[in-house]
Amino acid sequence: MRSTEGPPYKALMWAIFILFVLFLYAPIATIVLLSFQGPEGGLTFPMRGVSLHWFAELFGPQSIGDIWGAFRRSFGLGVIVMISTVIISFIAGLAYRRRFIGSTVLLYVAIASLVMPSVVVSLGIGAGFELAGIQRHWYSSGVGAHLTWTLPFGLLIMFAVFNRFDRSFEEAARDQGASPWQTIRFVVVPIILPSLIGIALFGFTLSYDELARSSQAIGAVNTLPLELQAMQTNTTTPVIYALGTLTTGLSFLVIGITIAAFVIIRRRQQRHGSDAGKA
Amino acid sequence: MARSLPSRAVAYFQALPIAAVFAVFFILPICLVVVVSFFDYQTYDILIPDFVTFNYEDVFSSPTTYRTYAATFKFCLITWALTLVIGFTIAHFLAFYLKSVPTQLVCFLICTIPFWTSNVIRMISWIPFLGRNGLINQALMSLGIVDEPQEWLLFSEFAVILGYVHLYTLFMIVPIFNSMARIDKSLIEAAKDQGASSLQILWNVVLPLTKPGIAIGSIFVVAIVMGDFITVSVLGGGQIPSIGKSIQTELSYLQFPPAAANAVVLLGITILMIIALIRIVDIRKEL
Which of A196, A211, A210, A208 is nearest to A258 (CA)? Predict the structure, then answer.
């Protein structure tokens, strides 16, 4: 394709790409900027001074709603969903390396769960707990609702991973007398560790920012995205931007840590070959 | 496989947790939605087990339903077309215009990072742009293009579609890019050797081979827009009808059975649309 695509085409495509990136990032950059408004600042430009006033407001007692409670719940939920997603997807991925009856049905269920309108899933879980007379909670119905969204991603990533996995490493381990558990612990897990970290990233951030499936499944208390949506209708100060900046910052921090971990592990693997068996 | 029997048993144990989660939190709830849609309800008793059909009669006899579906289809179609064109262009750029793999990876990552942040914040972040005193109005007025702030920018159909494109183009980029990355470059060389122009290559070689990616991306966008109630309420300003929002409204009045009937209809229509898309492509081959 390269030789026929002359420099003008190439410049045009770069321009389109840069415009698209601007379109993606400019709005977020704007609210980050506006969250540093001075105390007299409003929801739009021009900036009236620069301060941390609205962040202080967030921590103040007069802040609207239960932001910190919502933050704690969202974070806790994200961590639980992340750990469950990694473990459940990993062993499900192992299952799919063998033939078993129902594997196709299970795959289609996972895909259905991924594309099901979230409001339907949320309503179903809410109605289920209602009928069974069980109190809805973020750590029960909430975790379940989020897993219906994160597990399909995890499973699909595991498919991609094991499609490219070289089984001769495992055979070698078995020939050396490793038990199935040892093979998984010291051969399979170290090799696919970067992908497992990727699944953890999916699990945490998808759950941390999830709104639609939480709406009916979480019970009486809000998670952070629900709190934000509620605030959005009745907040007229940049305090909502400050909250947006904080929670976006946390998301970016998680992405950054994940990418760093990914890179470090890749480097280590390249330097040492496989570090299988080194602990 | 001498150990095939125990090994198969192991597979069942390994598949059990994921199957259990889907059974309890997905299959069962969806079945319950269908069951509840035939229930009766009263103000203080939100679920009365019964077999009544008036929830559906209400759905199908109300002109609002048809108007809401027409609006939802319209949003779906416009969003699908826009995300497809933009997604295809960006994926094409990533797959064919970037020579080195690291550049490709970095550019791809740049496109995906906003996906990891809160949708609500990404929606809210349009307000300082589109509002009455927003950046666009300020720019238009200072340039003398308009005399007074344009009200249609925010809390309008325009804002909702802009929000959808902003939020969901990535769902097109990733699968289309994935399909494009698998295209054997020698096919393109061959087409070129036969004298095909860039446009002919794009239309006759790249596009057909990218169809699976397009179908997967389309399924995502269609399913999300059909059920959306958040974008519509944040950026639509309460005036835009959406089927997801009417379900949400019924739920907020604790009217579970009519909401369930609405949800079943939505579910049916979404499934029909997805089946139509799957007929074009075997998803399993793409994994």
Answer: A196
Q: How far is CA A207 from CA A47, A58, A81, B167, in A?
A: 33, 23, 7, 17
ω into A46 cis (within 30 of 0): yes
Q: Which of B4, B13, B18, B255 best probes binding to A when mutated, by most A CB atoms within 10 angstroms?
A: B18
Please tell me chain B's helix, strand, coil percentages from 3-state DSSP, rounded to the nearest 5: 75, 0, 25
Q: Are A183 and A33 in contact (CB under 8 A)?
A: no
Buried b (16+ CB within 10 A) or exposed e, B198-215: beebbeebbeebbebbbb
Which residues of A fall within a CB distance of 8 Å from B118?
208-209, 211, 224-225, 228, 244, 247-248, 251
* HEC secondary structure over A44-84: CCCCCCECCHHHHHHHCCCCCCCHHHHHHHHHHHHHHHHHH
Residues of chain B neighbouring A194 (CB-CB closer than 8 A): none
The answer to whether B119 and B167 are in contact (CB under 8 A) is yes
What is the longest distance spanned by two Cα atoms in chain B? Answer: 82
Q: A258 to chain B, minimum CA–CA distance in Å?
A: 12
The whole-angstrom separation of Cα A68 and Cα A223 is: 10
Global pTM reads 0.87
Residue whose tokens read 């029960």 = A140
Q: For Cα atoms B19, B22, B23, give the angle at the middle one, nearest 5 degrees.
A: 80
Across the strands, what pairs with A37?
Answer: A50
A155 Cβ under 8 Å from any chain B Cβ: yes
**Residues of chain A contacting B12 with CB distance shorter than 8 Å:** 95, 100
Interface test with A, best of B121, B198, B220 (most A CBs within 10 A): B121
Surface of A (175-214) touching B: CB under 8 A: 201, 205, 208-209, 211-212
Q: What ipTM does the predicted assembly reach?
A: 0.87
pLDDT in tens, B211-252: 888 988 998 899 889 988 889 988 888 788 899 888 988 888
Q: Which residues of chain A does B232 touch, with a Cβ-Cβ cutoff of 8 Å?
A: none
Identify which of B114, B127, B133 has the shortest CB distance to residue A24. B114
Q: Are A17 and B107 a contacting pair at CB < 8 A?
A: yes
- Which of the residue ranges A136-140, A141-145, B274-278, B282-286 has the most confident prediction, judged by mean pLDDT? A141-145
DSSP B202: I
Tokens of A50: 């620069």
Q: In Å, what is the CA distance from B49 to each residue of B42, B256, B259?
A: 11, 12, 15
Q: What is the pLDDT of residues A211-256, one digit of tens each?
A: 888 888 887 778 888 888 888 777 777 888 888 898 888 888 988 8
- Residue pair A204/A254 in contact (Cβ under 8 Å)? The answer is yes
Please name the residue of chain B whose CA is at the shortest distance from the CA of residue A228: B120
| Integer Cα distance of A98 and B10 in angstroms | 9
SS3 A267: helix
A244:B128 CB<8 A? no
Contacts of A216 in chain B (CB under 8 A): 251
